[in-house]
Amino acid sequence: TPESAERTAVPGVATGLAVTGAGGDVLFVEASLAERDTGGAGLVLTGQLGDVMKESAQIALSYLRSRGPELGFPVDGLADRAVHVHVPAGAVPKDGPSAGITMTTALASLLSGRPVRADVAMTGEVSLTGRVLPIGGVKQKLLAAHRAGITTVLLPQRNEPDLDGVPESVREALEIHLVGDVREVLDLALQPATAAAAA
Amino acid sequence: TPESAERTAVPGVATGLAVTGAGGDVLFVEASLAERDTGGAGLVLTGQLGDVMKESAQIALSYLRSRGPELGFPVDGLADRAVHVHVPAGAVPKDGPSAGITMTTALASLLSGRPVRADVAMTGEVSLTGRVLPIGGVKQKLLAAHRAGITTVLLPQRNEPDLDGVPESVREALEIHLVGDVREVLDLALQPATAAAAA
Amino acid sequence: TPESAERTAVPGVATGLAVTGAGGDVLFVEASLAERDTGGAGLVLTGQLGDVMKESAQIALSYLRSRGPELGFPVDGLADRAVHVHVPAGAVPKDGPSAGITMTTALASLLSGRPVRADVAMTGEVSLTGRVLPIGGVKQKLLAAHRAGITTVLLPQRNEPDLDGVPESVREALEIHLVGDVREVLDLALQPATAAAAA
Amino acid sequence: TPESAERTAVPGVATGLAVTGAGGDVLFVEASLAERDTGGAGLVLTGQLGDVMKESAQIALSYLRSRGPELGFPVDGLADRAVHVHVPAGAVPKDGPSAGITMTTALASLLSGRPVRADVAMTGEVSLTGRVLPIGGVKQKLLAAHRAGITTVLLPQRNEPDLDGVPESVREALEIHLVGDVREVLDLALQPATAAAAA
Amino acid sequence: TPESAERTAVPGVATGLAVTGAGGDVLFVEASLAERDTGGAGLVLTGQLGDVMKESAQIALSYLRSRGPELGFPVDGLADRAVHVHVPAGAVPKDGPSAGITMTTALASLLSGRPVRADVAMTGEVSLTGRVLPIGGVKQKLLAAHRAGITTVLLPQRNEPDLDGVPESVREALEIHLVGDVREVLDLALQPATAAAAA
Amino acid sequence: TPESAERTAVPGVATGLAVTGAGGDVLFVEASLAERDTGGAGLVLTGQLGDVMKESAQIALSYLRSRGPELGFPVDGLADRAVHVHVPAGAVPKDGPSAGITMTTALASLLSGRPVRADVAMTGEVSLTGRVLPIGGVKQKLLAAHRAGITTVLLPQRNEPDLDGVPESVREALEIHLVGDVREVLDLALQPATAAAAA
Ligand SMILES: [Ca+2]
Ligand SMILES: [Ca+2]
Ligand SMILES: [Ca+2]
Ligand SMILES: [Ca+2]
Ligand SMILES: [Ca+2]
Ligand SMILES: [Ca+2]
Ligand SMILES: [Ca+2]
Ligand SMILES: [Ca+2]
Ligand SMILES: [Ca+2]
Ligand SMILES: [Ca+2]
Ligand SMILES: [Ca+2]
Ligand SMILES: [Ca+2]
Questions:
Q1: pLDDT tens-place string over residues F33-73
Q2: A82-105: per-residue pLDDT in tens?
Q3: Where are the beta strands (DSSP E) in chain A?
Q4: What is the ipTM of this complex?
Q5: Annotated catalytic residue B54
Q6: Which architecture does CATH list for D2-190?
Q7: Pick the CATH number of F2-198 from 1.20.1070.10, 3.40.50.720, 3.60.21.10, 3.30.230.10
Q8: In this complex, is the C-beta atom of D51 within 8 Å of any C-beta atom belonging to chain E?
């Protein structure tokens, strides 16, 4: 998929799946970290995000701030530097909790410098302890992923029953991973550190 | 109960009981503490919490900030680090004071590293001095706890009369503790430090 | 009165009197001070307090911050530590200026470690210089105090005419002090330091 | 006047004049300064003040912060200490710019320790450079001052024409000073430092 | 003009021109700077200013913060000291961008200690780079300036065509300067440093 | 074009293109940086900008804070100094994401001291990773640029199809660059450092 390949070429970008008025769509979560001593601090959220989606970003960041070190994601770089999470397109309102694991992945990619795999898209609410909670719109999201050339999709374990409603051709074409903990998401979606170093 | 066992496996998560439009339900209060020098500070509250429930979280935190040391909960770890309290599911609005003791327990578990017992659920308003005040929906909450496989429930002492309205089979199946002070809650709900060390 | 005895057993809690939709009632103002270096700061107000009641708490705190030292209440403990004032029940909206002297008493008790006398309840607006200003609902409040087993009530001097409307049996049963300055309130309501040390 | 004498006995309180729904009335502006290192900072405003009246308090404080030293009012005590301005009664909404000179006087009294003369009341908008600007309700305000036993009133120079509408008996009974600059107000209203020291 | 002479006698005050419901009027922009270590910080805006007018004040301050040093206006005095901009009368709502150059002039006067010429009034929007942009109400504003005894008016260059609508007698009586950059405004409106020293 | 030449003569100003109620128009994004120790901090946004346009400014600043150093734009000057972005005219409400690359260019010009080319105008949303995203109103914007004497226009690559709707005479007259990454924008729009030094 040319678009997700271009978008995720740099660390800090992950591919998500959303339900829109016109079916499903691919979206990109972008994260950046201000250089030290450039005057920023805290978490900046843009992309016309609604309350629930803003909370998802806070959960993703808190998860990494508390669990990052034991998972191998350096978080000491976060002190006194602004973290910015943006979800294009800038003028389109977005809401809901289902970008939780995508936000966590984008931030973990940013912190580790490991790019996200371009062929992977994901959807799932994340809890503060890293549990992956079920979301809606599985069928539309898988159709959208397939249309966009995505080959691997990460879905919440508890959404397994929803796969019955997805056309068999789409299920066949996609490698679908059912995940219960965001650590599985990070293992599957982030390129190994060595690949990143070579990138 | 598989779900509460999974959820409360790590310190910082306590099982509560809520009244919803469709009877009662089990909910999980999750608390996390940012690693030192990761740029956060203060209390972050997520889960679409209403005003009263946000105040409950502030009361729970203030209780531990002032009484924690004498009760054996270390609070010096709270300086300059963000505390985050989240109540999944992220998109479901929640309100009311009855998660007060659950929030206190989740935070005390987080501070002490002692996990919460997986078979225990609780409901009760907490005051700033640790008094446990009565709540509503006792019947629905006990039915929900029973359905979810919970075996021990902590209720406010002043809700004792409401037990008359609970089916005898449910009362029999559950070990119900009536509590007047949140210290009793912490004694009953937190695993001993040694068990936690072994976990 | 068992309830106010339990409630005011620790320093930082004072018994007030309020007018509610159903006559008068006893309420408890609880104050706490975060331990040093536990990440809090400023004044936290909970209990669904309205604008006027929140201002009362600010006035009570400012009074002690400016006059505390000359009255013997140590205020240096307030630097960089969060003060929390809560008025249970958490879900019941409350407003009005008449808890002013109760809030001042709760904070003075907290700062000095001197518990408030369990048999004393009070009502009165407080000004920034410590003047006690008149309030409404004297009759309902005295009836409520009497019902709750309170034996001593502190009222604003300027409410003296309202005592005419109170049943003689209630007036007889209560020891009523008419006060013009909050220093009189503190003298009457706080247990002496030696009693506190012995408590 | 017993009330203004009691009220203004301590530095930091000045007597103002207001128009209310029921004619004119005397009001008291109270100012306090937190002791050093008691956790407060900035300007706290209470008394259900409207936007315009809050701005008056900011103007009064800024005037003293910039002009205080040249007028002999020490302002170095303001660093890192909360200034609180309150206007009882706490539950009565108040608005308008005409308490400007009263607020400036209360703050100047607080900073200098010089009490305000108990027989003086005042009304007038103040500008940031200390100009006294005209206000409304001169007749009602003078009648109220007279009723309250006030003997000296400070009015804006530009309100001189409004004196024609005031009953001659009231004008005779009062010593009325027309002022154009807030320095004249401070000279007339504050007791000399020596008197204050003796107080 | 007695009023503008009195008003602008101290540095930090500039005379502007406004359109009101009743034609045009003269207004005064007052600026003050808190003494060092008096507890203030940032920009305080009063006078019931609307959003656009508040933004004008921010633009004026930012212009001087970035360009002040190269224009000879000392800005190091701004660190950690509150800047206050007030536009009397305090209770009259005001809005619009046309006080931009007046605000810049008041602030530049304050920083340099050079008083503004009492015979000069001005109107014009200012951009962040100091461009003077056109405004409305030229005719009413010039009539008001003339009525108030002003003899010199500064107008945006791009408002030159609007002069056709102004009565010839007024144009003759006034010295009108058309300005394109705020530096021209400052040159024309501020008294030379030597004159200020002598003042 | 005289206007854009005057406007962009100093670093920190870039020429954008907007759709207004009356077709298209040229707009100028102005950026300034407060001198060190002049009391400002953070990002100040003025010009009656709507939510989406404010977010564009935050994205532009975050892009430079994180990517600036590797692109040769010094960002260490941003610590503890206020950045101000203004879009005249001050009273005209503006919104939308299409000024994103213009804002990035203005800020990059400010940081580098390299002025923006006066003959260049641009339109395009920018993402946090510097992707240039498509915008609306291509035809009106190109007509406006042509009318204003602009000779070079930068458009998002993904808007190429919209060029079909633009009159051939306008397309011929303009040098149109289709850009996919904001680095291309900066290369095309900023004058080389040597030219800037000579300016
Ligand atoms: Ca919402
Ligand atoms: Ca498959
Ligand atoms: Ca509410
Ligand atoms: Ca049982
Ligand atoms: Ca209210
Ligand atoms: Ca009695
Ligand atoms: Ca108002
Ligand atoms: Ca007289
Ligand atoms: Ca507006
Ligand atoms: Ca002329
Ligand atoms: Ca909007
Ligand atoms: Ca061409």
A1: 999 888 777 899 999 999 999 999 999 999 999 999 999 99
A2: 999 999 999 999 999 999 999 999
A3: 13-20, 23-33, 43-46, 83-86, 120-122, 125-126, 132-133, 152-156, 175-179
A4: 0.94
A5: no
A6: 2-Layer Sandwich (3.30)
A7: 3.30.230.10
A8: yes
